Structure formats: structure tokens, C-alpha cells
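Onboarding guide, step 5: your first structure request.
Type a short instruction followed by the sequence, for example:

Predict the 3D structure of this protein.
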Amino acid sequence: MRRGKSVADFCVITGGDSALIEAVRSRLGRGGEKFVLRAAEKSEDVAGSPDVLLVSPACAAAHVASPVSCGTLVFPGDSKLPAAHFRADSVVTYGMSPRNTVTYSSIAEDSCVIAVQRELKSFHGETVESQELRVEGGMHPDTLLAVTAAALVLGV
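The system replies with C-alpha cells like these:
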């Protein structure tokens, strides 16, 4: 938990990817007691220092031209984005590579098995241990990884 808060300030840098914000709303809801959701197309649109910042796999370098600070950064580990623009207390990466914190174990059309490669801390301070999770499919694989990684960090 950051600064004794019980509700996370959750921001998504979409890079213009409206499908990601819709997937977040569809899978995670609008937050309620867990988080307040905000969307920003580019890093300069991010207000303040969010507790959790999700960077879309669709982001290009032009979308992250301004420095951003946050509590936990959920970042596409396979991207070529300038990581130096981000200041974070912790980083959770997602992507197809086994080097990422959150990746796939198996992919099918209707469901996937997502692997948490190493333990991480949720916003509320709970430990999420290495494990495999079966999740419903039905969206682009990169989007599904991003949403699942954010859900783990948010404790949803």
C-alpha cells in the first residue's frame, strides 16, 4: 500500500489503444472500493503520480516522451520504450518472454494459462506468489496479459 491509501489511483497510458481501456473496464470493472481508473493517451497526460500505472503494449516512444513517476509500473517487457522516462517504486513486466514477471504458459482461443514467474506485491501489500492462472480468453494476447498483470497488482 502506498502512503496509507486504501483505494489505488490507477492510470492506463493507452497510446491511443481504446481496446485496452475497454478490456480493463470489462474485466476489472470501474474499481469501486479497489481503485479509481483514469486513462491517458500519452505520458504527459498523466496527472500526478499514480499508485499503479499500466503502459499499453500499443505505446510507441512518442507516447512516453515525458517523465512519469508512479508506485508500481506495469510495463510491456518486450517493448523498445524508453524505460528511463519512468520512476517507479516497483516494476511488473508482462509479455511473451519468460523474462517477464507475467507471461503465458499456454494459449487457446477460449482460455489461457498465465504464469506469474516471480512473486510480486499487490497495491494492498499482499504477496502474489509464483503460480499459473487459467483466465478467460477472447481478446488480443498482449491485451490479456496487460489486464491480468494489472489485476494482480491491484489485488482484483
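Each response can be followed by summary notes, for example: The chain has one domain: 8-154.
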